[in-house]
Amino acid sequence: MLLLTCLCVQAQNPKPFVIPELKEWQGKKGDFMPTSQTRIVCDAEELLPVARQFAEDYEAMFGVKPEVTTGKSRNGDFRLSLKNNKKLGTEGYTIRIGSQVSVSAPQPIGVYWATRTLLQMSEQSENRSLPQGNITDWPDYAVRGFMMDCGRKYIPLDYLRDFAQIMSYYKMNTFQIHLNDNGFKQFFENDWDKTYAAFRLESETFPGLTARDGHYTKAEFRDFQKEAAARYVEIIPEIDAPAHTLAFSHYKPELGSKEYGMDHFDLSNPEVYTFMDALFKEYLEGDDPVFVGPRVNIGTDEYSNKDKEVVEQFRAFTDHYIKYVEGFGKQVCMWGALTHAKGETPVKSDNVIMNLWYNGYANPKDMVEQGYKLISMPDGLLYIVPAAGYYYDYLNTEHLYKNWTPAHVGDVVFDEKDPAILGGMFAVWNDHVGNGISVKDIHHRAYPALQTLAAKMWDGVNVTLPYEEFAAKSQLLSEAPGVNELGRWGKPGNLILSLPAVKAGDKMGYPEVGYDYTVEFDITAADEQPGTELFRSDNAVFYLSDPISQKLGFARDGYLYTFDYQFFPGEKAHVSIEGDNTSTILRVNGKAVGQLNTRTVYHSNEDKKAGLRVVPTLVFPLQKAGNFKAGIANFKVYNYKVSEKK
């Protein structure tokens, strides 16, 4: 009898791995097996958009698009329904996997999150089967977010769209877009006029304000927010003031402060209010405003507190823009600074959300007592500053997974699910303008952090899987349906492409290959024109003859990197290019003839603090072969560095 009991227990399906981890799982025996007749059946018309998105994502991942319909479900179907359940809150859901898959939730958002769970479970099975059992799942925190600094580095909208999809796949729901900022003066000859600054959004009110090296039109930014909202990701646009405002004082110098720095507004100048009122109005007014969602971040970060007068001016500025933006029907978010700017001028707190990043700037307990709701994003744990040498280049995901929840605001710890803590957010700050970091490099840092923090913001202290197992299994999940920003193909350690020859104009079947990789081929060189491409993708170009030196090199993100090597016409050689997240190496006939490594470049011999870590990395482009004359044979692409396995 004991043996029979043990066998029955062992026969129950184990808890499936998904990110974030399922709150409750009751395993049963057997599997649900989808077929060509499997449909997605909705109980309610309002679930049809969720069902259609589920069907499209299912097709993107598995090549099969289930029919979407309403009415009565049958065995083999997915059934989506709305059903009240106080335990689940707004975003929770249940899934019953048996002869059919039944999803229910109080709100459409919960049904949508359930479809993310089903897609993650399905992609871990070769035949898309699902283990039978019951799931009950809900988040511990309402805000599960990420902030991207688009001010110091232009981040193309296509990437932001992809990242919003990735966030959605992992049930992250808040994406803050930091639209303006500037570099550090010490890297620009200590001259504010030469210091890089950018405002990324089209402005018709102030022609010439918008950055020329990359910006978003109002129409496309509006569409981006709506597309993300359809996947239940809220975009929070941020215009940061009264500090970090060099882009505005470059445009209109009288706005800048000669005392506190031109990256600070002169808060004694009434033109500052005239300017900012008009700027916010451009994006907030009308029936279809440019800022679409319910919340807007007004900045208020890191202004000087040198004297009492400027502190009171800062507090008055903050209060004014809270009320001004609220006047357009938006809830205001802002950075925590009111301990740093402690004073007597009242600042509205009711219904205001504060990003808590450094407790010296805003003491969490004091802010709660004043009435603010908090988003936990402690800089010492959750700030990525690529290749800067401070904060984190890559987050310590093991520490975060084992120790952090949104209740931990730096060294201040609240009770789990304290109503004052809305949730958490991590951030990428592109502080070091001109350091060569690519969008692909940013993604290489942000994506693993997102997977980890998605688990911790949804489940808080309730994660049960050991970190090592979580980390290993997380790498096997897709970034999102149809999204592969990392450029990873196949199982690690494999040859992913082998062609006897490549001709001009050929398409490789892969857009690009990401870190770590090896691309190798035999070449019979020819006399190539300057700018002759070997391959290109939407993100990069690899040159057989770069446009300036006519040597081998590559370009991406506005940077051109050149290897000090070129071929003579008629020369025959074996070429290998290896890339990882710190370097790109060119080998010819087995010898390293060009090695571009991450290095520090100093802008001044006198000022050793003004050193940038320059990152010459490449996600190798494969989308289309260029118009070259050379003969390319025995072309191979590996998803690992071949030199390390020899």
TrEMBL record:
Domain Beta-hexosaminidase bacterial type N-terminal: 16-138
Signal peptide boundaries: none
Glycoside hydrolase family 20 catalytic domain residues: 141-460
Coiled-coil regions listed in the entry: none
GO biological process: carbohydrate metabolic process
Gene3D superfamilies, alphabetized: Chitobiase/beta-hexosaminidase domain 2-like (3.30.379.10), Glycosidases (3.20.20.80)
Pfam families per record: Glyco_hydro_20, Glyco_hydro_20b
Keywords: Glycosidase, Hydrolase
One Gene Ontology molecular-function label: beta-N-acetylhexosaminidase activity
Active-site residues, Swiss-Prot/TrEMBL: 302
Family: Belongs to the glycosyl hydrolase 20 family.
Annotated protein name in UniProt: Family 20 glycosylhydrolase
Lineage: Bacteria, Pseudomonadati, Bacteroidota, Bacteroidia, Bacteroidales
